[in-house]
Amino acid sequence: MGDADFQAALIEQINQQWAAGGGLRIIAPTGPDNITSGKWQMMPIIGARTMLPELSAGSYFQGAVRYDLSFAGDPTKKNISNLQLWPMLNISLPDRWFFILYPSADIRVNYGDPVTGQTGRLFLPFDFSVGRSLTKNFTVSLEVGVPIIKDYPVYDFKNWFSSRPTPLSVMRLLPS
User: Fold this and answer.
1) Under DSSP, is residue 172 helix (H, G, I), strand (E, B) or coil?
2) What is the pLDDT of residue 135?
3) What CA–CA distance (Å, rounded) separates 147 from 150?
4) What is the pLDDT of residues 31-61, one digit of tens each?
5) How many CA atoms, within 13 angstroms, populate the side-chain half-sphere of residue 6?
6) Nearest to 44 by CA among 14, 12, 71, 15
7) Alpha carbon distance 136, 154 (integer Å)
């Protein structure tokens, strides 16, 4: 329905405590005009994970930085250039439940063309998720996000219910 994307990542588990990686996502403007940006985009990403056994077994902090940048496409469409920060704190709870602060890379600083309603560059939400791992590789969760600073409008309210296999990128960052 929307734009197609392709991505690749290299992730190195340094030891049981630490992992780090980097990657690149390419987004092609293949969606209909009413939902696509009309631009080809590349999004390099780097990140690191540290386990936090002092909180609980399976808890971790994962920091990532990615940069969404348009490089081709419809010249009449707005150029994309925004920094996205992802300071995710995953706290493992009893009985395979979990609580996550900033489960998505929604903290953004826009360096590109202004969007409708933009008064500054920063979008800073309060974003959290709660969920449960039903099996080793399948989770259900509910994510909720509300803006704290909305100088660069991304959303007014976000809720997202998910039932899916655990993403391979998360499985690779977590120790076996």
Assistant:
1) helix
2) 86
3) 6
4) 888 888 899 999 999 999 999 999 999 999 9
5) 5
6) 71
7) 33
User: For 4-173, CATH number?
Assistant: 2.40.160.40
Helices (H), the chain: 168-173
Q: Are 82 and 105 in contact (CB under 8 A)?
A: no
- Rounded distance, CA 169 to CA 144, Å? 22
> If you count them, how many residues does the chain have?
176
Coil vs helix vs strand at 170? helix
> Which residue has tokens 């009413």?
34
Q: What type of residue sits at position 69?
A: L
The stretch 153-165 carries a mean pLDDT of 87
In angstroms, the CA 85 to CA 106 distance is 7
- Model pLDDT, residue 162: 85
Amino acid at the residue 164: R
Could you report the per-residue pLDDT of 71-102, keeping only the tens digit for each? 999 999 999 999 999 999 999 999 999 999 99
